[in-house]
Amino acid sequence: MNKKLFVVSGSSGVGKGTVLKKFLEKNPDFMLSISCTTRKPRDGEVDGVNYFFISKDEFKHCIDNDKFLEWAEFAGNFYGTKKKFINRCLADGKNIILEIDTQGALKVKRQMPEAVLIFICPPSLEALENRLRGRHTEDEETIQKRLKEVEEELKRAENFDYKIINDNLENAVCELEKIIKEANA
Ligand code: ADP
Ligand code: 5GP
User: Of the four listed, 10, 75, 116, 141, which is most buried by Cβ atoms within 10 Å?
Assistant: First the structure.
């Protein structure tokens, strides 16, 4: 089977993590890339599992030494995907999914045109805001910063290969499975 790289993006709170968690439970032969970030861990997040939590200086060092396949600033924090991590997974023949922001997704596509970009849309902007608030992980200032990103994210989504509306969770997971299976066939 020809292994492809899959990139899943969507506005903060749309349900990317939730959809991907269910997908990975059903498809254990896929793995999620672990990104580096300068943001502080949320309660329950573990270094090396959810992210590699690094300082701004370490992040800058990685940029200066060309360690990232892509990186972006999102709502006041830096996030990046290490080249080494991805290359090792692809060399091992692993199916890999990147859950990254829309700027990063488009950077990946420029370097790896075979990458499949999937954008997860909310059923409405109201639902998106309710989900982001309902998660209770961000303070008001951070919520506002994240909501400000939405307009640009929706514009960038026009350049994605696929869009999935995450209204009913099970349906969204099934759609993701269908897209990935077809692309990997
Ligand atoms: P993201 O990873 O995109 O920031 P999360 O996966 O953390 O978003 O989801 C944000 C919130 O929305 C969570 O509380 C999650 O339980 C909820 N959620 C996710 N998908 C759905 C859905 N289809 N319907 C209703 N709530 C959802
Ligand atoms: P969060 O802080 O909610 O975990 O993530 C915020 C945003 O950063 C989300 O859109 C998420 O997909 C994105 N993100 C996570 N890792 C990376 C990465 O390595 N690169 C880029 N460009 N974005 C990332």
Answer: 10
Ligand 1 proximity of 12 Cβ (cutoff 6 Å) = yes
Q: How far is the CA of 177 from the centre of ligand 2 (A)?
A: 22
Q: SS3 for the chain, per residue?
A: CCCCEEEEEECCCCCHHHHHHHHHHHCCCEEECCCEECCCCCCCCCECCCEEECCHHHHHHHHHCCCEEEEEEECCEEEEEEHHHHHHHHHCCCEEEEECCHHHHHHHHHHCCCCEEEEEECCCHHHHHHHHHHCCCCCHHHHHHHHHCHHHHHHHHHHCCEEEECCCHHHHHHHHHHHHHHHHC
Question: In terms of residue numbers, what domain contains 180?
Answer: 5-184
**For the chain, what is the domain count?**
1
Closest C-alpha residue for ligand 2 atom 15:
100
pLDDT at 3: 65
Q: Output the pTM of the full model.
A: 0.97
| Centroid of ligand 1 to alpha carbon of 3 (angstroms) | 28
Chunked in runs of 10, what are the mean pLDDT values of the chain (185 residues)? 82 98 95 97 97 98 98 97 92 92 98 96 98 96 98 98 98 97 87
